[in-house]
Structure formats: structure tokens, C-alpha cells
Write a structure and sequence with these properties.
The structure is a single chain. By secondary structure, the chain is α/β, with parallel strands linked by helices. The chain is built from six helices and 14 strands. It has a single domain, classed as Rossmann fold (3-Layer(aba) Sandwich), CATH 3.40.50. The radius of gyration is 22 Å and the shape is globular.
Length: 251
């Protein structure tokens, strides 16, 4: 069984985010492995430990700065890593396109049997890439999975639903997004990290990433200025309210 795990790097939540000329100043950010991806990595590692015929490969899309996060992910027991090398993707559609092309080039005529992803990136919290990737690969997808049982090429999945649990049955190949609660990610030790440093990271140049469907024109920090004005009657309050929200009630 070929298992592919897609990983992303995100800003450390302890990093101070500063905006410069309408853009986030990335030089001040410490980038780390996306926490949600650790659940996907742990599940792939457990499946590999259950069967010797499992080949566990990491995939990421972007520039060479991602290699450090990929090394950390390799410590979960992955056999190899593949970087779809190019400019950092500007949106989910572009990221999914780069990953899909890298998988097709890496596996050739055979697609991976199982693609595992974190439910979303903690950087933007969109959760779009796994679904776009599944469409580009032409396979099914199941999101926010909290339990996975495999029997040959048949999978029994569970995900939380309002007031209960939803049980799904699917057949490989399949894309699955891992929800918190699927497992408890392991703490990687020194031995695993040393082994990860020697594991191969293959660079695949993607020919032409899809054009981004959305572009962020500028970013501005939230204005947290507060003011307080006291009034003595309701008649004074009405014009003040109109001044703040506008006559049409638009903020």
C-alpha cells in the first residue's frame, strides 16, 4: 500500500506577526510543521507498523524553506519525502495543483492508495486543499475523520456529527482529512530525528502551477483604538449612532 501524507508549514503561534507595506513580514516569522498534520502523520505511521507492505511518503508544495518542516515530519517514520518545488502557493487551488502534479510524477501510472492530510492549516484555517486535491486526482474524499479501520482495500471511517457519530465505508484510493481525536501523535525522539536527517527529500519541479483563484491584495492590522463618549439623553444618542454606523446602517 502506498500512503501519501501532505504536510504544510505554518507560522509558530508564538511568533510576533508584523505587517510591512500591506504584507506580513515573513522574515520575523518562525515556521513550524502544521499541528493538524501530525494526526495524519501518526495515522500513517500506525498503518505502516501494522503492515510491512506499506510505503509512507511525504508531500509538500513550495520553496526549499519547507525542508526543515519535512525533516521533522520524516521522524514519524516516513520512508521518503517529495517537495513539489516552486514558488510558495498563493492559494489552496494552486497548492493542490502542485501536490497533484508531484504525486502523478512520483507514482507514475499508479496513484497512491491512501492520501492523508490534516483537516486544515492552522495558518489560514481554510481546509480546502484535501478536497481540491481529491478532485484533481479523480478519487473520493472523506473529511474530519476521528477513527479509521482498514481491511484490505476497504475502509471503515467515523467522524463526529451533530449529536452522534457518522459511520462511512469507502474503498481505496481515497483522500482522508484527519481530525483532532483520530489519535495521539507521538513524541519523536533523538534517534528518529537523526534518521530523518538522512532520509531522502526528492525535489520535483512542477511545470506550471494552476493560476491562483484568489489573490490577497493587502493586509492591514486591526485598529484597536477605543473611545468613549458620554451623552445625557436618547435624543443625543441617535445622531451619534448615525455618525458611527452611517445613515443606512452600514458599518
Amino acid at each position: 500500500m502506498n500512503i501519501a501524507v501532505c504536510i504544510n508549514q505554518v507560522p509558530d503561534t508564538a511568533s510576533r506577526i508584523e505587517v510591512l507595506d500591506g504584507k506580513i513580514d515573513s522574515s520575523r516569522l518562525n515556521m513550524v510543521l502544521n499541528p493538524y498534520d501530525e494526526y495524519a502523520l501518526e495515522e500513517a505511521a500506525r498503518l505502516k507498523e501494522q503492515g510491512s507492505a506499506v510505503v509512507f511518503t511525504l508531500f509538500s508544495a513550495g520553496d526549499a524553506s519547507r525542508v526543515a518542516a519535512m525533516r521533522k515530519a520524516l521522524a514519524f517514520g516516513a520512508d521518503e519525502a517529495v517537495l513539489a518545488q516552486g514558488e510558495e502557493p498563493s492559494d489552496s487551488h494552486q497548492a493542490a495543483g502542485m501536490l497533484a502534479e508531484a504525486m502523478k510524477l512520483h507514482y507514475g501510472d499508479c496513484l497512491p492508495d491512501l492520501v492523508l492530510c490534516g483537516r486544515e492549516s492552522s495558518g489560514l484555517n481554510r481546509g480546502e486543499v484535501p478536497y481540491l486535491l481529491a478532485r484533481m486526482l479523480g478519487i473520493g474524499v472523506a473529511g474530519r475523520v476521528v477513527r479509521l479501520e482498514s481491511s484490505g482495500r476497504e475502509l471503515c471511517l467515523q467522524r463526529e456529527a451533530d449529536g452522534g457519530v457518522e459511520v462511512l465505508k469507502g474503498r481505496l484510493p481515497l483522500v482522508i482529512t484527519a481530525e483532532k481525536g483520530l489519535n495521539r501523535p507521538r513524541k519523536t525522539g533523538v534517534k528518529a530525528m537523526m534518521k530523518a536527517r538522512k532520509a531522502p527529500v526528492h525535489m520535483i519541479e512542477v511545470s506550471a502551477a494552476p493560476a491562483p483563484g484568489m489573490k490577497v491584495s493587502s493586509i492591514h492590522p486591526l485598529d484597536r483604538t477605543r473611545s468613549c463618549r458620554m451623552v445625557e439623553s436618547v435624543s443625543e444618542l441617535v445622531p451619534l449612532f448615525e455618525e458611527v454606523v452611517g445613515e443606512d446602517g452600514d458599518w
